[in-house]
Amino acid sequence: MATIKLDVVTPERVVYSDDVDMVIARSLDGDLGILANHAPLIAALKMSILRIKKDNKITHLAISGGGFMEVNPQKITVLADAAERPVDIDIERARAAKERAEKRIASPREDVDMTRAEAALRRAMTRLEAVEKEKGN
Ligand code: ATP
């Protein structure tokens, strides 16, 4: 099977860089499955799990910040504010972030930015979901 190069990059680091069989990404317009030789496209990604198929294994990357995906026939580039491999996710940190955000949302105060709290909650949940999905591999 032809492979396609995938790079997942954040402002801080290269999170993933390898030749893969397929990538399934959640774009604002729905799920996209990308194989080698795909037509060029650019898509905005939802905060979501990026599924990477390689050698009959699936890896789940948390795209925990806003992101874009650029597709060319031989290469996929994902640029995201934040992205993590499940092995790099600190579960306790994500649980603590989730709890903190839930508390803020549950007892709104004037000085609490709800949009920010909701975004933090979604980031934490995306990270925990990536870890759970990876376990179920
Ligand atoms: P926290 O409140 O725990 O800092 P956050 O959602 O505000 O979480 P971000 O601003 O999205 O954190 O990310 C800052 C940096 O920390 C990024 O490099 C991100 O990959 C990393 N990061 C955040 N949470 C985790 C986690 N649970 N495990 C591993 N890396 C994380």
Order of helices and strands: EEEEEEEEEEHH
**Superfamily at the CATH H level of the largest domain?**
F0F1 ATP synthase delta/epsilon subunit, N-terminal
Number of domains: 2
Global Rg? 16 Å
CATH C-level of the largest domain: Mainly Beta
Main β-sheet, in a few words?
5 strands, mixed
Bound molecules: adenosine-5'-triphosphate
Unreliable residue runs: none
Global mean pLDDT: 95
Number of helices: 2
CATH topology of the largest domain: ATP Synthase, domain 1
Description of the molecule:
This protein is an alpha+beta fold and 137 residues long. The chain folds into two domains: 4-86, Sandwich (ATP Synthase, domain 1); 88-135, Single alpha-helices involved in coiled-coils or other helix-helix interfaces, CATH 1.20.5.440. Helices cover 28% and strands 42% of the residues. It contains two helices and ten strands; from the N terminus they run E-E-E-E-E-E-E-E-E-E-H-H. A five-stranded mixed β-sheet has the order 2-1-9-8-5, with no helix packed on it. It has a five-stranded antiparallel β-sheet with strand order 4-3-6-7-10, with helices on one face. Strand 1 and strand 2 form a beta hairpin. The longest helix is centred in the last third of the chain and has 22 residues, at 114-135. The two termini are 21 Å apart. 23% of the residues are buried. The mean pLDDT is 95. The site of adenosine-5'-triphosphate has 14 residues, from helix 1 and helix 2.
